[in-house]
């Protein structure tokens, strides 16, 4: 908690220096709608898509990338340190309501619960997109062929001899390593923390790890010699992309901000998320460039 508070304080000071608000008695820059992303590439791309929607409606926008995990970003949104976060429905609900023994599974029911939960914390949850992205778990094609592996269940007898690679927060996440242990009884012999999804793929292809976590919309899945394992026991929830706005910002910027964000959600599809990822992961474009080109194509 102390570390989180220190990060939030540093974030608040940084945002104040980037247009979050002038010092007392100073004119300062004009206020902006402050978008914030999580610390992985796809979320940075999606935040740029939504931020560009706001720009094209004439709203002043600033973007802070890679702020951290939900333990940092969610309190920042609730406390008004940032204004807009782009999240994923199932994971956002599990983080907000971890005590749910049997959470809803239909997206509309999940959304309704998330709206009520976050509304009580000063956050408006807008309409979700049909686009979604889940945690995926991959092995190399050669590994899959050698061991006859097609599903996550197939890994159970092999797991004690395997090394797993995923993001640093994976061991504590209900839809990552915790879920693999609880739902599939997968207990890997070694767990390695990977700084990026690209590093996970490199570790997998080099043999440093045997199983890696990549999002199901990762464009590299289509070109790398890997097999995405079937989630045959339905560990992963529906993960529709959903924008969330701090209530103060929602009131301040009003209907133009809401319309911009919900227009982005209405236009976005899972296939387009993959193409946006491809533009950044494979073609070398920045998230902002990919988002602007996507909007031009709309």
Automatic annotation (TrEMBL):
Signal peptide limits? 1-25
Example of a GO cellular component annotation carried by this entry: ATP-binding cassette (ABC) transporter complex
Q: Which PROSITE patterns match?
A: PROKAR_LIPOPROTEIN
Q: Name one GO molecular function term.
A: transmembrane transporter activity
Instruction: Report the residue ranges that make up the ABC-type glycine betaine transport system substrate-binding domain in this protein.
Output: 32-296
UniProt xrefs under InterPro entries: ABC_Gly_betaine_transp_sub-bd
Question: Sorted alphabetically, which SUPFAM superfamilies does this protein's record hold?
Answer: Periplasmic binding protein-like II (SSF53850)
Q: Does the keyword Transmembrane helix apply?
A: no
Which CDD domains does the entry mention?
Answer: PBP2_ProX_like
Q: Which keywords fit this entry according to its UniProt record?
A: Signal
Q: Name one Pfam family in it.
A: OpuAC
Protein's name according to its UniProt entry: Osmoprotectant transport system substrate-binding protein
Organism of this sequence: Blastococcus aggregatus
